[in-house]
Design brief:
The chain has 692 residues and is of the alpha+beta class. It has 10 helices and 40 strands. Helix 8 links the parallel strand 11 and strand 12. Helix 4 packs parallel to helix 6, helix 7 runs parallel beside helix 8 (246-255) and helix 9 (294-308) packs parallel to helix 10 (348-354). The relative contact order is 0.08.
């Protein structure tokens, strides 16, 4: 219980281990840790079915290896540690299991804190097991032996962990204990947190077969989160300092062909209930609370037993600890892990522990990944220039942590971590890097993580086509223009004003991103009544644009935008925006324009078809001056349109334009309004049709 629980990090791109889960309810055997051997009776009164004793080798053999033996007990007048025999006897008499955590090398046998020689330590553990085998009566439980305490961390080992030395010590101890008590349970030294890497290192050195179970500790320093809260490490596995990390220990054991049980010989929470920076130990000292309040200690303990009931391979749940220990200081985190206060009064967690044997499985941890919705690009989308990326995610559990875009097997595009909310779209419009992709198929991967590191991913397949040549997309779609009808001009400087307007090309719903360029033309009407281009420029077609010009000539102007076209979009031009530029600025003018409705043709009579089209003149308020409309009906001949019928009718707000057409084939019709002050002449767009 000596190292801190790390803060959650969200670094993974893949889910880690496959966790075993219980098919039926199973409650881990509840136990208690004791500091004082004399508290065994109190622990049993709380309902403990296992009692863990810290057995220090140095208390048995302070001077030499000749001071203690299985058959002779203490030698040279040195007693067995006071209270140990009585405590163990009491535990055995009540049918509970003693867990002996054997540590504390005497000075003559130590290298720093750890044993200097693996065999010397093993000899002592064997003698201890032999002694307990003699004092245990028939039918009483066999003890369990932990080979050291937290050998994977310096606090008890005294130096950097040494898997080679420890494996040798474990193997030798197993042999010695089993020689003297075949029924004893030999456990690995408990890990600091759920250190599955350490367990793997033991397997790699041949430790398999040298233990009956793996021991873990989950009461890491300043733990202020419940057992169902977790984070994942860089590999995507449950983190070492999460309660549920024992599932990763289990996965490691199974990967090594080992189905032995896990003993959780320390779990618990301190009721220090300090402020947000009160933690005084470990990596998170000064960065988090030192503990929880008594109500949360009880709630977390209940949840811990509910979690463990899901996993029958966890056979022991030994709470740290029976009672608070004021010797560490009243405000110390280490002083308040007890189920009982220092004066013996029960905390709420003591009531939970007394009923632990009846606690069944319950929901434990949010392992559901977010849902992911990709709106751009569409599956199978073909593009030639740049892609747009847009996606959202939702998580009904712990909340979203990150949305990541990658391509072609995990190559990074961008992470989004700020201001994420359920259903809110994030992305790039456009993704400039898509221009560098080669022609051909590509994968866009959208990965969403919640704050527990649960992962969901959607993959969209796209194809990049060449601009020209084989495989190029046809230009079949006509984008629409949306342009402001207002021209804004700044202050005049030496007779010149900077004027501007805004607009954008609008694609069809669900259409591909518009690529390519827009050309802007500013045309001035000269004294001959002719418009001539005086100012121009280029803009990107894929986003909203502002077209600007510095104007000097006063009079009538018009401006339009011409799109060059890029597959799948056709080249097209906007209508002209007319305005008058004066000393006061620019004032737009509404202009007349023509629209032609569908062409209809009657049955053929005398070799001709009588066809007509309806022309509507859209103009400002006020009546039309006398003028005419010229209608030209053109037939496609040898890839060129030729005028076959011309007619003139009086201009009107809405007129029907008839014609008798002799030949079948492809035709088109257009109307031209000649204009009469104050209205300019204007052509309608062509209306194409086929005559059968």
């Amino acid at each position: 219980m000596r190292r801190p629980r790390r803060l959650a990090t969200f670094l993974l791109l893949s889910v880690g281990a496959v966790f075993a889960s219980a098919g039926t309810a199973h409650a881990a055997t509840p136990g208690l840790n004791l500091k004082d051997y004399g508290d065994a009776r109190v622990a049993l009164a709380q309902g403990a079915k296992q009692v863990r004793f810290f057995v220090r080798w140095s208390d048995f053999e302070p001077s030499s290896s000749t001071e203690f033996s299985a058959s002779g007990g203490a030698r040279a007048g040195e007693p067995i540690p006071a209270g140990l025999r009585a405590g163990v006897d009491l535990v055995l008499q009540q049918g509970a299991t003693p867990i002996m955590a054997v540590l504390g090398a005497p000075a003559w046998a130590a290298s720093g804190k750890r044993p200097r020689d693996a065999n010397e330590y093993a000899t002592f553990t064997g003698e201890l097991a032999g002694w307990l085998a003699q004092v245990r009566e028939q039918g009483q439980p066999s003890p369990a032996y932990e080979i050291w305490n937290e050998p994977d961390a310096p606090e008890f080992w005294g130096e950097a962990p040494n898997a080679d030395f420890y494996t040798a010590m474990l193997r030798a101890s197993y042999q010695q204990i089993k020689r003297n008590d075949q029924g004893a349970t030999v456990l690995t030294g408990p890990t600091t947190g759920n250190n599955y890497d350490w367990i793997q290192s033991l397997y790699a050195r041949g430790a398999k077969g040298a233990f009956d179970g793996v021991s873990v500790h989950t009461d890491t320093a300043c733990s202020d989160r419940g057992p169902d809260s977790f984070y994942r490490d860089a590999s995507g596995r449950l983190g070492q300092f999460t309660f549920l990390g024992y599932r990763e220990v289990r996965a490691t054991m199974l990967a090594n062909g080992d189905d032995k049980p896990i003993w959780m010989t320390e779990l618990g929470w301190s009721t220090t209930n300090g402020g947000p920076t009160s933690c005084a130990r470990g990596e998170q000292a000064g960065k988090k609370p030192s503990g929880v309040n008594e109500a949360n200690q009880a709630a977390f303990l209940r949840k811990a037993f509910e979690c463990l009931a899901l996993d029958p391979y966890v056979v022991a749940a030994t709470v740290f600890t029976l009672r608070d220990d004021p010797t560490n200081g009243v405000g110390s985190e280490l002083s308040h892990y007890g189920l009982l206060r220092a004066d013996g009064a029960s905390k709420p967690s003591a009531d939970v522990f007394r009923g632990a044997g009846g606690i069944g499985p319950g929901a434990c941890g949010d392992f559901e990944p977010p849902s992911v919705n990709v709106t751009k690009p569409a599956e199978g989308e073909v593009f030639v220039d740049r892609l747009e990326l847009a996606a959202s995610a939702s998580d009904s559990g712990v909340g979203l942590g990150r949305i990541t875009y990658t391509f072609d097997g995990g190559q990074q595009i961008r992470n989004f971590t700020e201001q994420l909310s359920n259903g809110a779209s994030v992305g790039l419009s456009p993704w400039f890097g898509s221009r560098e992709l080669g022609v051909g198929p590509h994968r866009i991967e959208v990965t969403a993580l919640d704050t527990n590191g649960n992962v969901a991913q959607k993959v969209v397949n796209v194809v990049k086509a060449p601009l020209t040549g084989d495989g190029a997309l046809p230009q079949t779609v006509t984008p629409k223009y949306r342009i402001s009808r207002k021209i804004s001009c700044g202050k005049s400087r030496k007779g010149v004003r900077a004027c501007s307007s805004t607009g954008r090309l609008v694609r069809p719903s669900g259409g591909a991103r518009i690529g390519g360029k827009l050309a802007v033309e500013w045309q001035f009407r000269n004294k001959k009544g002719q418009y001539r281009k005086l100012v121009g420029g280029l803009k990107s077609a894929g986003k909203s644009f502002t077209f600007k010009a510095k104007l000097k000539n006063r009079g009538k102007w018009r401006v339009r935008v011409a799109y060059e076209g890029q597959a799948p979009y056709k080249a097209t031009r906007s209508e002209f925006l007319y305005f008058r530029y004066s000393a006061k600025g620019a004032k737009t003018e509404t202009r007349n324009r023509y629209s032609l409705r569908g062409v209809s043709c009657g049955s053929r009579t005398d070799g001709k078809r009588s066809c007509s089209v309806k022309a509507t003149l859209v103009r400002p308020t006020g009546s039309l001056r006398a003028s005419t409309v010229t209608v030209r009906w053109q037939q496609l001949v040898a890839k060129r349109y030729r005028t076959r019928v011309t007619d003139e009718v009086k201009a009107g707000r809405s007129v029907k334009l008839p014609a008798d057409l002799e030949q079948a084939g492809r035709w088109r019709v257009r109307a031209t309004y000649r204009g009469a002050a104050p209205y300019d002449a204007i052509n309608s767009s062509y209306r194409s049709f086929r005559v059968e």
